[in-house]
Amino acid sequence: MPTSPFLRDNWAPVTSETGPEGVPIERISGSIPTWVRGSFVRIGPNPKRPPDPLSYHFFLGDGMVHAVEFGDRGAVYRNAWVQTHELLTGDLTLDDGSDERSGLANTAMVWHRGLLCLEEGSKPWEVQLPLLQTVGRITYDGKLTHNFTAHPKVCPVTNELVFFGYDFSDPTIQYSVVSSTGELVRTVPIQFREAVMSHDMAITPKWSILMDFPLWDRSQPTREQDLSRLGVFPRHLESESCLLYTSPSPRDS
Length: 253
Hints:
By secondary structure, the protein is mostly beta strands. The chain has one helix at 85-89, and strands at 23-24, 38-45, 63-71, 74-81, 108-111, 115-118, 125-128, 133-137, 153-154, 161-167, 170-178, 184-191, 201-203, 207-212, 229-234, 244-246. The strands form four sheets. Strands 1-4-3-2 form a four-stranded antiparallel sheet, with no helix packed on it. The chain has a four-stranded antiparallel sheet with strand order 5-6-7-8, with no helix packed on it.
């Protein structure tokens, strides 16, 4: 029987966890400098329950973290599923009456006062290093009311976390900033032309940049007149009136 390419070869799911003790990595040659300390981590979709072999897409896999810890035991490998509500119960939505998606925490990670596991259609889940124990779902004391992009930015100068959230049913992008102390200090709604998958953003020390690309109906060719736009605005804008849209104009130099 044919199966999804995301269920075989290098995409084949890992079916077990190492547990907190982890597995020591055998050194074949060379040495690890004694000053190397910390964890190298990655995340990706890894379905825990057997999915439909024909229709499965890797966007739908449960998030699994893989880590190599460098410490007194040398190099130790661990892996663990992020213990999301959906992983534990099989329910797509939370059971708190909100009808909000649990999320799979399967796309990317960011370090900001903890390791946040991300998926664009929901809120982050925090995992604790080095043992990969799930701490819980991050809502910033209930202030986070929108989805959380999988590609937020941490300012290297202020250590602020800058991010946005979108919904395929709404052209409003929610732009937010979390302080260096972990407080959500700002959320500003920004109107795009149409609801769209706004995948990424950029920041400078002063400015934030959102990308309004005309990928609204991917079943049809993109129209030439629907130009891509970049929304440029101060990081701590008070309202959308501070936003300037510009269209990229590439040229040879």
